Amino acid sequence: MRLFLAIPLPEPTLARLRTAIAGLHGRDLKVVRPEGLHLTLVFLGERDEAEAGRIAALLEAPQLAVPRIAASLGGFGQFPPKGSPKVIYTPVREGAREIVALQQALVGVLQRGGVRLEEEGRAFTPHLTLARRGGGPPDLNGLEDLLDFEVPFAADHLVLFQSFLKPAGAEYRALKSVTLE
């Protein structure tokens, strides 16, 4: 099973993001479907059922009993930061430090629990992926204006998701959800 840990977004936040996503079509980008929007904290990749169960149990660790995070999204970002982008995203503005701390606590809990993780090679940057590069160089004209918004949300759940890759885009199933206090 293909797994990752993420913070889901509430419907009012998704409604605002749908507007931004609509403006990304026709720019030689593979746009993320709105139902696929979430803040990924840790990508776990392929795991068997037994390990998925261990990971789900680790989410009950006291180190993850953190308060809900008042956060916001908005603005334009790209990976890599210079040149032709592979990923278009909107960064977390408010609450970024707290989300980084949650991600680091989560990585620590997983590693102490014996879950092997791949090294990222770069520091975790809390962001929401909106699109990936299509076939050719994407049209970036006006993207900074399109993504010039700030939408608040409460990061109040941590979810272990299973991902199913399909031709129309990935589909997700929540395996375990933990409420942030």
What this model shows, in words?
This protein is of the alpha+beta class. The chain has one domain (2-179): Cyclic phosphodiesterase (Cyclic Phosphodiesterase, Chain: A, Alpha-Beta Complex), CATH 3.90.1140. Helix content is 24%, strand content 34%. The chain has four helices and ten strands, in the order βαββαβββαβαβββ. It has helices at 11-22, 49-58, 96-112, 143-146, and strands at residues 2-8, 29-31, 38-46, 69-73, 77-79, 87-91, 127-133, 151-155, 157-164, 171-179. Strands 3-1-9-10 form a four-stranded antiparallel beta sheet, covered by helices on one side. It has a four-stranded antiparallel beta sheet with strand order 2-7-6-5, with no helix packed on it. Strands 4-8 form a two-stranded antiparallel ribbon. Strand 9 and strand 10 form a beta hairpin. The longest helix is centred in the middle third of the chain and has 17 residues, at 96-112. 24% of the residues are buried.
Please sum up the structure shown.
The protein contains 4 helices and 10 strands, in the order βαββαβββαβαβββ. By secondary structure, the chain is an alpha+beta fold.
Corresponding CATH superfamily: Cyclic phosphodiesterase
Number of helices: 4
Topology order in helix (H) and strand (E) letters: EHEEHEEEHEHEEE
- Identify the CATH architecture: Alpha-Beta Complex
Q: End-to-end distance, in Å?
A: 29 Å
The largest β sheet comes out as: 4 strands, antiparallel
- State Rg: 16 Å
Mean pLDDT metric: 93
Total of domains: 1
